[in-house]
Amino acid sequence: MTYSYHIFYFPFKWKLYNGKELLFSEQTDLAKINIRNDSFWIRQQEPVNYDELKSLYNEKNYYYKFVHNILYDEADGSSSAMIYHFERDEPRQSDKVRYVIKVKGRAKPYSLAVDAMNINLYATGVGFLSFYLRNDDSSQKEPDDILRINQYGRRIMPPFFDDIKNRYELSESIGIEGLWPVKEYKDDFSSYSVDDSWKPASFVNELIMELADNIVFEPVIDDRMFVASWYKNDKLADMFTENDEAYMNPADGFSSFWYKYLFIDGSFETCQNDRMKKELLDSHTYTRWQKYSSLYGVTRYSFMLLTNSSAPDHLLECFQTIYARMAELVLVQRASLLCFSDEVTRVSNLSNQEVGVISERISSLYKEYIRFINIVYFRDVTAQDQGIELYHKLHSFLNMDECIHDLDNEIEELHQYVSLKEDRSRDQKATRLNDIATFFLPVSVITGFWGMNSIEAVTGEQESFKWQCLLIFVGVIASLLVIYNKKKRL
Keywords on this record (predicted)? Predict the structure, then answer.
């Protein structure tokens, strides 16, 4: 029996190795990724069995067709591909791959079956490493166990340096067992130094680097993985099914668990004000199916479902596929915006470069941004009421509209800056041309005059060369005086 299910998403930004000076579109060109010959990651574009085929059918019918380009790897190798989807081979071949979390104060590590491990790379410079984990161990089914699995299972770097010693937020170790080749995909975080900020656990780094040999990556959004999880517990479900305010009433015992479950708190609630707690729970909870013993919750780092043991299989499968995919899409959007913003900052720091170089970088960035708006960022992704409502909640708590507005302003200001530099460059070139024309004007007049009258006829043949030199000298002096007076007036 499966008691809970946990999906951990590690978002990161990637680019081609030594691609710092490339255009944005070249830095994130999926077609230029070199997949390692010895990699256990397999690009998977088609379902491998009947169950996956049914699941894919349900997903595609749920989402608008124009959303499919960013959700599914169906490209034929063309440069227009938006996503490459890779799956780790071992979980398909063995049921012994486990996600193991050793928590301080618990003798037995938490061990979850790994149903799948995926890496998605997107043409916006974003990637995801995903772990699909099944909890079928009756010794780790209690509410406190579920809270610890989510809290410690998502932590893949120390949030505070002192936590390396104290382990309040961090597990004692975390890793994957049962992968090939036989080696330890595990980190106990003891090797971290003060110079290792934003450095993910070693097993995360190894898994990604085993995919390709010409990409570099770094975390984006947060120092924790995003959590999508469902949990079946009859006792908890009975507490909220017929009580409309149980989930948000600070005086009700259920609200304490729901807050910790929703906001991924391990041992205590991180909100200690009743009014604020009530407001947070009310806004972050989705109650459409409350009387069917199903309570959903959405935050900027979690997407949760609490239900009872009689929940139909299709409900849980829908959460693991359709809604998990929705959460992933919104995370892709949010992470992509951060990548674009990072490129804006990088281009802004190129003020000492030639204006043509900066203009080309901005043009590439703007082109990819327009592509993102048209293919990745959507106001709605489905016609289903529940999907619309949950999608909007995810958008709201990740501040998507505000981020889009800010990025629009950043790109517009950058465009104006380059336009001013281009105008200034054109003005400088025009000024130089005017100076050249001004310089030769007196000489041209003199030359034109003497072109109609032979200088030898006026001065004599022996004196003509002296007069020519004198007139050229006078012409040059006159030109310089004209240019000087013109500059002085400016």
Answer: Membrane, Transmembrane, Transmembrane helix
Please count the structural domains in the chain: 2
Mean pLDDT of 331-357: 84
C-alpha to C-alpha distance for 107 and 412, rounded to whole angstroms: 56
d(CA 228, CA 74): 25
Kindly provide the b/e burial profile for residues 291-318, where b requires at least 16 CB atoms within 10 angstroms of the residue's own CB.
Answer: eebbbbbbbbbbbbbbbbeebeeeebeb
CA–CA separation, 190 vs 282, rounded Å? 40
- Please check whether residues 366 and 420 belong to one and the same domain: no
Query: Looking at the structure, do residues 208 and 294 belong to the same domain, yes or no?
Result: yes
Between CA 124 and CA 151 the distance in angstroms is: 29
Return the pLDDT at 430: 60
How many CA atoms lie less than 13 Å away from 471 in the CB half-sphere?
Answer: 17
**Ramachandran area for residue 75 (φ above 0: left; ψ -120 to 50: alpha; else beta):** beta
Q: 397 near 299, Cβ under 8 Å?
A: yes
Domain limit, last residue, from 316, 337, 371:
371
Q: Are residues 149 and 260 in the same domain?
A: yes
Q: Which residue has the higher pLDDT, 415 or 180?
A: 180
Asked if residue 488 has pLDDT above 70, the reply is: no
Query: CA dist 117 to 7, 161, 172, 296, 439, Å?
Result: 10, 29, 23, 25, 73
Give residue-wise pLDDT tens across range 137-175. 999 999 999 999 999 999 999 999 999 999 989 999 999
What are the distances in angstroms from CA 424 to CA 147, 243, 366? 60, 68, 22
Range of the domain at 316: 4-371
Amino acid of residue 250: P
387 in a structural domain: no
User: Angle at the Cα of 171 (from 175 to 297), degrees rounded to 5?
Assistant: 95
Task: Note whether 343 and 469 are same-domain residues.
Answer: no
pLDDT at 364: 86
Is residue 305, in this structure, part of any structural domain at all? yes
Q: pLDDT of 196-235, one tens digit each?
A: 888 999 999 999 999 999 999 999 988 899 999 999 999 9
Residue with the larger pLDDT of the pair 345 and 487? 345
Q: Are strands 302-307 and 226-232 parallel, antiparallel or unpaired?
A: parallel
Using one digit for the tens of pLDDT, what is the confidence trace for 298-321?
A: 999 999 999 999 999 989 999 999
Q: What does DSSP say about strands 110-122 and 83-88: parallel, antiparallel, or unpaired? A: antiparallel
